[in-house]
Amino acid sequence: MSYKHKDLLGTRELSRDEILFFLDSAKEFKNLNNQSIKKSDNLRGKTVINAFFENSTRTRISFETAAKRLGADAINFSAAQSSTKKGETLIDTIRNMEAMKTDIFVVRHECSGSAEFIAKNTDASIVNGGDGLNEHPTQALLDLFTIRENKGKFEGLNVAIIGDIEHSRVARSNIWAMHKLGINVRLFAPPMMMPHRVEVFECEVAKTMEEALDGVDVIMMLRIQLERQGGAVAFPSGREYSKFFGLNKNRVKLANPNPLIFHPGPINRGVEINSDVADGEHSFVLNQVENGVAVRMAVLDILNKNRG
Ligand code: CP
Predict the structure, then answer these.
(1) Which of 82, 181, 206, 288 has the highest CB neighbour count under 10 A?
(2) What is the distance of C-alpha 122 from the center of its chain?
(3) Which atom of ligand 1 is nearest to the CA of 55?
(4) Cα of 308 to ligand 1 centre, how many Å?
(5) Distance 58 CA to ligand 1 centre (A)
(6) What CATH number is given to the structural domain containing 95?
(7) Which domain holds residue 166?
(8) What is the pLDDT of residues 195-225, one digit of tens each?
């Protein structure tokens, strides 16, 4: 098993073996992260720039942590304080930072396809940290890592993805990857947040919250992504959304015993998920975050090795 590419742009193009290769490598880095000295020198002397043109807490900080634990020089670019505000293009911005001998860029941008566009126009390695509605591959990998760690397998598991699927790159990356691992994926969303051509995802589509949750092993709740809805009001109020599409303690009982409850964050408490569930015994939200560092260490390490 190996991964032989310059970039990691999405899970859609990954084979089953490539996904497992990332997860197996991440397991080794999780062991390292559990030591008191969480440090390797695999990326010593290398430069990693987090080029985030959109806001982030988890992805940016965990990539920075991952790069530093691997011994790299980790630099954070913030679009708000950059010359993009003076009209500099995306590719000029990246090429100027590449001229400073940057080895790997982690890129987050609001435009779908931006990571691929940059990858084709630079010799540096590109990790997609989230491009528009398209993909967020390291989120899917950390979700899969957390599933395998707690369920011990993928084949035959049932996962419900619930919420704003239309605007979710997390949902897309998970759907592509989960299919390859033999996981059954069920989708449920308000009509305005369900993709128009949902059949392309080849998932079950539930009609009610009860149907969505029946017999699932993993419940993945999604945030309503108002920033991608162009000002349209997709539901009357948070309270109404919670009533029909929110996860509460009673609804969790519809799932299989000991379900894993996931949320990529940030959470809208009391809207898509109640606090007693987000903080409850079945919540793996912070496990996802913890595993994100190990997964991102694996991704940076593998891409760095591919650079020779
Ligand atoms: N899950 C995730 O992408 O969170 P951030 O937007 O905080 O990075």
Answers:
(1) 288
(2) 23
(3) 6
(4) 30
(5) 5
(6) 3.40.50.1370
(7) 137-288
(8) 999 999 999 999 999 999 999 999 999 998 8
